[in-house]
Amino acid sequence: MKSKYLVxxxxxLLLTYLVSCKQASxxxxxxxxxxxxxxxxxxxxxxxxxxTLKNFIIDKGQIKIITDLINGKIENEIxxxxxxxxxxxxxxxxxxxxxxxxxxxxxxxxxxxISHQHYNTKLTYRAGMLLxxxxxxxx
Length: 139
What we know:
Blueprint: H1 2-25, H2 29-37, E1 41-47, E2 52-57, H3 60-67, E3 85-91, E4 94-103, E5 108-114, E6 117-122, H4 125-135
Antiparallel strand pairs: 1-2, 1-3, 3-4, 4-5, 5-6
């Protein structure tokens, strides 16, 4: 009889833990969604070997490819690496958000902070290609 209660107790504690962890990882989801929906322009800075390149994106489809990466996930399996550049997000010519990105062969990620919490997301193939295109000044 004791073992039955012990199993119920352990199960309920495990479920409580899992639910609380899931809520914590998306604590700022509403804030992130409201920020990314307001973006009407992106400025990409790519740190070259001798110079920093700067490009603007105003195409809504391309902006969405980048802002979709700001999703509140913390991907622990991503290793730390040096940033290749940073991105400024604008609404009506005012900066509302900033991220850094790495787009090297072994490290493709976007990093940002919200409410003192560090988030990192793997770059999608499309986002990586788009950043490459703008970083190398093809647009």
